[in-house]
Amino acid sequence: MDSTSTAAKQVRFYRTLAFIVVFGLVAAWLFPLAGIPGLGKFRPDEAAVGLSVAVIMLSVVTILFLLRIGRIFDVEGQMERRLGDEARVLQETQKRQEDAWAEFRNDLKQELAETRAEFRRSQEEQDAKYLGIGADAAGARRFAEELAATRTLVQKNKDEIAPLLVDLRTRMEAQEQKARVLENRLADALDALERREMEAAAARTQAEQELAALRKREQLLVIRTKELEDHNEVLVREKGRLVSLTKEEAAQHVSLIPNLGPVNVSRLNTMGVITIPQLRAARVENVAAALDVDPDTVRKWQSIGDLLRLEGVPQPATEYLVEAGVRSVPALAAMDSGELSRKLQDVERARRTKSGLDFSQASVAAWITAARDGKMVQVAA
Questions:
Q1: Which of 342, 332, 339, 319 is nearest to 366 (CA)?
Q2: For residue 134, is pLDDT > 90?
Q3: Residue 226: which of 215, 237, 234 has the closest Cα?
Q4: What does the alpha-carbon distance between residue 285 and residue 295 come to, in Å, rounded to a whole number?
Q5: How far apart, in whole angstroms, are the C-alpha atoms of residue 24 and residue 18?
Q6: Verdict on whether the full-model pTM lies above 0.85
Q7: pLDDT grade, residue 336 (50/70/90)?
Q8: Looking at residue 339, what is its pLDDT?
Q9: Which residues have CB under 8 Å from 284's CB, separation 6+?
Q10: Is residue 38 left, alpha or beta, with left meaning phi > 0 and alpha meaning psi from -120 to 50?
Q11: Average pLDDT taken over every residue of the chain
Q12: DSSP letter (8 states) at residue 300
């Protein structure tokens, strides 16, 4: 809403109220004086009626004024808020103008500095150009003089040089033709040489591969020959010893221990350990040093030899029992069948191979019963 139109409306409203008040007061006092019928002529009751009319008119005007005064205050609040908003807008506009003016001054200073620098560089370039033009002009004059002298000399020697130029051109054409022929021959020779080098490289690679394969085969043959020689030596020694073994020694020979190996068997026999009881009675450190193995491995063999005495326990199962923690017959007798069955199955799964052995609780219980009853394998005399 426009402030000017609002003020004009307020002025008209208050003029109207003033006119109504004046009119009401005049009418209240004129009614009794004019002798208007119905109101009387200054009688007390007629005066009271006039006064009542005046009071009513004043009440009406007061009510209208009170109703209008709220609108006046509201308009004043709106004007104050609008003036505050316009003041803030004016301040922001002034701030933006000041910032723009400061930025404009900075840009103008920067452009002025750049213009001065550019003008200075242009002036220096112009000076250098003028100096160069002067030098070029002097050089051009000297060149023109030398060119005139050269033209005179060339003109004098033209008749003498012309035949030489023709002969030189002919020789150059002949040389160029020979050079082209030589280039073609050289290119063919380079191509042939490159092909030969590629073929030689391929032949070298193939020869190296074949040589590596032959060396690998040679190493394998050497290893296999050594193994065969060791095995042959073991067999020869074992053959001589087995001939002299008794039946009891043969039934308890150390070769019955699983995965002991012919080389270790031969070495044990060499040091005088023929039977499993002898291996169990031998010192672990001495056997480990003689066979060049870990002492724990020797203890494992001793435990297997002890378990091999039990009746009904398969020979391969003794190695599984030792890995499951059963190191002797008394230890087996103290085990629980269910727990031992689970441990043996775990050992078999850890090996990731099927042994074909029966590790059920019933079979394990039979082994534990044999250990508790002392059922040992009887060796015939």
A1: 332
A2: no
A3: 234
A4: 6
A5: 10
A6: no
A7: very high
A8: 92
A9: 295, 298, 299, 302
A10: left
A11: 78
A12: H
